[in-house]
Specification:
alpha+beta; eight-stranded mixed beta sheet; two-stranded antiparallel ribbon; globular; about 375 residues; 16 strands; about 20% strand
């Protein structure tokens, strides 16, 4: 979604007829917040020229149909991504963190002005805790970043929150987005019924495609992560194809900017534009997508069939690569072997896979179609 946000800025600022008033209008659509004082003690920023950006897909149900879930009283993070942009801007990595990851969540400021108690729970609870007592997106982002920094040792430079309502608006503005499903998808609860192959997805289908989980494949969050990563690439390709359709681009930008909350240090629309420009020369074959390796928590706690734990030592090595500004996807980028470093200093409780060999990182590049093996 950071590429989505950066690319929408290019679409706006790269149009000669944009003008100051239109720029100001779209920039004002983007909510900005300074959360630096809410993060407590932070890990060192070992490579200041590199950037780690946390992207949160907010699953607020406001304005959405009941098939996307009911009964939530706070926003939660339906999607959680950490994007690493290296200092040399020669490659990039997009790491998806399963929302059911069982982690340490530190004490966080809530909407009523009180601090939550430290807890152990799935990672998307961090965003919900910050959003208690009034749906405060900035507090949710702060608690999520505080959790990521504590549990991984990765210094987070910026955050971007994207809500569901804006997502549908972006797809509608473009007249749909083409996506390929390698297998048939049938999720009655979400109204999704697709044969294998290419489909032009309307807003409802697109949201179901990236949102649906149960009834698709093995029902895991990991399969959904793959679909989300693929759709991000398709969405931007579709937007760029509509470059000469001013009404479509205007509506796309209106929906996209209205759906965003970012940290004020990023610099709003101009900051997103500068981010995208710094990555413009990176070939898609050097942008890797992967999900954080994990295994069922039921392997350790038999009664917990809902959550996952992070696989060690692989995940600590991935966290170390983000901190040290080297690729985790060594097989894709022909990088040297990574040093085995522990990120949080608490190996075992939340991430040692019992009696199983280390798992390889399964990744793909932005140039690879999920329908082509």
């Amino acid at each position: 979604m950071a590429w989505t946000a950066g690319s929408l800025a290019v679409l706006l600022l790269g149009t000669a007829a944009t003008g100051y008033l239109m720029f100001r209008h779209f920039n004002d659509n983007i909510a900005q917040a300074n959360i630096s004082k809410l993060l407590g003690k932070r890990p060192p920023d070992l490579h200041p020229q590199a950037e780690n950006i946390v992207v949160i897909g907010s699953d607020s149900r406001q304005g959405l149909a009941a098939q996307y879930g009911t009964g939530l009283t706070t926003d939660q993070s339906d999607t959680l991504i950490v994007i690493h942009i290296p200092a040399d801007r020669q490659w990039a990595e997009v790491m998806s963190i399963p929302r059911d990851s069982y982690v340490n969540i530190p004490s966080c400021l809530m909407g009523n002005g009180h601090l939550s108690s430290p807890t152990e729970f799935k990672i998307n609870e961090a965003f919900a805790l910050g959003n208690l007592y009034g749906n405060h997106t900035a507090l949710g982002a702060a608690c999520t970043i505080k959790t990521i920094e504590q549990d991984t040792g990765i210094y987070v430079n910026h955050f971007i929150v994207v809500n569901f309502t804006g997502f549908e608006g972006m797809v509608a503005a473009l007249g749909g987005v083409e996506e390929c499903s390698p297998v048939p998808l049938d999720a009655p609860e979400s109204g999704l019924d697709l044969s294998a192959g290419y489909h032009m997805l309307n807003p409802t289908e697109a949201l179901a495609y990236v949102r649906a989980r149960y009834g698709l494949g093995d029902g895991s969050d990991l399969e959904r992560i793959v679909r989300q990563q693929a759709f991000m690439t398709s969405l931007i390709s579709r937007a760029r194809s509509e470059w000469y359709n001013p009404m479509a681009i205007y509506q796309f930008l209106a929906a996209a900017t209205s759906s965003l909350t970012v940290d004020s240090q990023l610099g709003g629309l101009l900051g997103l534009y500068n981010l995208e420009q710094s990555l413009r020369s990176v070939p898609t074959s050097k942008i890797a997508f992967f999900a954080l390796p994990n295994y069922p928590r039921a392997d350790v706690v038999k009664t917990d069939t809902a959550n996952v734990l992070w696989t060690q030592p692989e995940d600590s090595e991935i966290f170390a690569s983000f901190r040290d500004d080297v690729p985790a996807s060594a097989s894709l980028f022909a990088a040297p072997p990574l040093p085995a470093k522990l990120a949080s200093g608490r190996p075992g409780k939340f991430g040692v896979s019992p009696g199983s060999p280390p798992a390889d990182i399964t990744s793909r590049t932005a140039s690879q179609n999920i329908c082509v093996s």
